[in-house]
Amino acid sequence: EAGVAQSPRYKIIEKRQSVAFWCNPISGHATLYWYQQILGQGPKLLIQFQNNGVVDDSQLPKDRFSAERLKGVDSTLKIQPAKLEDSAVYLCASSLAGTSGYNEQFFGPGTRLTVL
Amino acid sequence: RKEVEQDPGPFNVPEGATVAFNCTYSNSASQSFFWYRQDCRKEPKLLMSVYSSGNEDGRFTAQLNRASQYISLLIRDSKLSDSATYLCVVNMRNNNAGNMLTFGGGTRLMVKP
Questions:
Q1: pLDDT, tens digit, for every residue of B55-80?
Q2: Are strands B107-112 and B11-14 parallel, antiparallel or unpaired?
Q3: A27 in helix, strand or coil?
Q4: What confidence tens digit (pLDDT) does each residue in A17-72 have?
Q5: Is the CB of A40 less than 8 angstroms away from the CB of B105?
Q6: CA distances from A109 to A15, A22, B39, B58, B93 (A)
């Protein structure tokens, strides 16, 4: 079974530029998550989708970050304009949607962003 | 105060040693608990769930103390391949809207020959 796919794997941009990341979850996974992992820290949830609806975006810096999952499958995360502190690995994860209990989140390989 | 706190390490241990990691969490309403493993420059992967009764998976034993809001992971007979960062993870939500995971900063383990 194919895992979570992300692209690009690496991106280097200058501050104030824009960047977009793409994620394709595991087939059949209704729930999709974007995390930011700064070097030396654990992943931090930015936004969670259930199908094409947003479940939680409380930690998304909405002045510069946006995300969409228009057809309930692929998702894009955009940063505009980027700041130096946005340098991090952006991880996408997906899971089955369930009525209760824990549905394991499977992570993609991440996009490593460097802002100069 | 961080929601999930871990000693960042690194823990440097020889092969065959037993090593224990601890983690504390701040929200008593947390629903479920996990240890994830993250290799260098790789994505996190679920290692095991953590239950109050304690659970064991081969050389790995996890324990949860809800009263103290404390989670532990014990690794026996360490292997070189155990070298990684171990992330303590707390789930705040279990419903049909999906789960909400909060990760600790991770504890780095280095097993030496």
A1: 999 999 999 999 999 999 999 999 99
A2: parallel
A3: coil
A4: 999 999 999 999 999 999 999 999 999 999 999 988 999 999 999 999 999 998 88
A5: yes
A6: 24, 12, 11, 27, 25
What sections of A1-116 are H helices per DSSP? none
The whole-angstrom separation of Cα A20 and Cα B104 is: 27
Buried-exposed string B4-24: b where 16+ CB fall within 10 A, e elsewhere: bebeeeebebeeeeebebebb
Whose tokens are 């930015």? That residue is A46
**Which chain B residues contact residue A40 at CB under 8 A?**
8, 105
Pairing of strands A31-37, B4-6: unpaired
Q: Which residues contact B109 (CB under 8 A, 6 or more apart)?
A: B9, B10, B11, B13, B19, B21, B75, B78, B82, B83, B84, B85, B86
Other Cβ atoms closer than 10 A to B92 = 17
Is B44 in contact with A43 (Cβ distance < 8 A)?
Answer: yes
Dig out the tokens for A30 from the structure.
């209704």
- For chain B, say whether A108 makes contact (Cβ under 8 Å): yes
Residue type, B72: S
- Residue A59, Cβ neighbours under 10 Å: how many? 13
